[in-house]
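Let us work through a complete example step by step.
Step 1: write down the sequence.
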Amino acid sequence: MVGSADRLCEAQGWSGQVPNCDAIKCVAPPAIDSGSVSDLLEGDFWEYGMVATYSCHSSYTLIGEKEIACSASGNWSHPPPICKVVKCYPPKIPANSKVSSGYGFHFKYGQAIRYTCEVGFAMIGSKMIECSADNKFHPDPPTCNLISCDRPSSVYKGRFTPDKDWYDYRDEVTFSCNTGYRMVGRDSSRCGQDGTFHPPPPRCEKVPCDRPSSVHKGRFTPDKDRYVYGDEVTFSCNTGYRMVGRDSSRCGQDGTFHPPPPRCEAVPCYRPSSSNEKRFTPDKGWYVYGDEVTFSCNTGYRMVGWGSSRCNQDGTFHPPPPRCEKESYPKGILTIQDLMKVILPKAGDIMEEMKSIIKLEHQLLQKEENIIANFREIFQLIEQFVNSTSITY
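Step 2: predict the structure and record it as tokens.
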């Protein structure tokens, strides 16, 4: 703008003059040594937005901006470049490294060399250096140091070997878990190219055991969905059954219970002793809890004890089996009271036999024979009494 950007309304009218907008002009771009700058293609001055391009003579390198533009301030956007002969010689290859790109005996400005480290070594510094205007490479070449790993983190309820302060590349550690714990993850890890262990350390968790198998005619406590190493269960058998095996078991290192669960078998009772004067039913080789036997005495013997007995939890019959004692009858004169003393026990036996018949229908025939035999004995006693004594009142 040429003129004032503002005008004021006054009493005589607008103050000043209308400004003009002229194109922004820049002075001609500066000339450079050993190089040239482009000429105007049209017009006679450099105005806003126009670009001047520089180039260097053969064997010279352009350092700086190749193009500069006329800016809104009327100045060039950048200072002009310079033309210079630049030649860099490659530095010595760092130890434990190699050149991956940029081979040659000398380099021009801007050319680069790239390095990589040998396996097991880590790079410190920039992997790329460039030939600069001072005929040197910048930045300095990198160094390749031996890769090391810090000590792995501790494993809860576990350990590792060897245990030392630091490890070299490819060094391996082996992990193990304490008794009662199992490993989740790999059991070994190796120091890697990035300075960390791969795979990461495992973790140790308590060894689980499945729920113990059910015990037929028995049970165990505590009964839960999950057990771990060291948990103990206690077994017991139902009434009438006895345990074969240990009454407790513990979750072991292999994830199973030791010793294995016991079994529950029916409590046995041995066959009651028999004699010529005593018999019992049913008569079999062995009995189990709850089995009942019924006893009876042969003719001429009387029972002392209970007429039936049951196999009990302790493996014996309760009440104890009765005994049969030989009947003895007094000689001489007997009274009615004496007779009743003889007859009444027999009548009681008959009643017990009748009860047994009702209870044990499948033994009806044998019980009937016993009743008939007892009746015959009563009749014989009465006949003997009538024939051999006189009755007094």
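Step 3: interpret the result. The chain has a mean pLDDT of 87.
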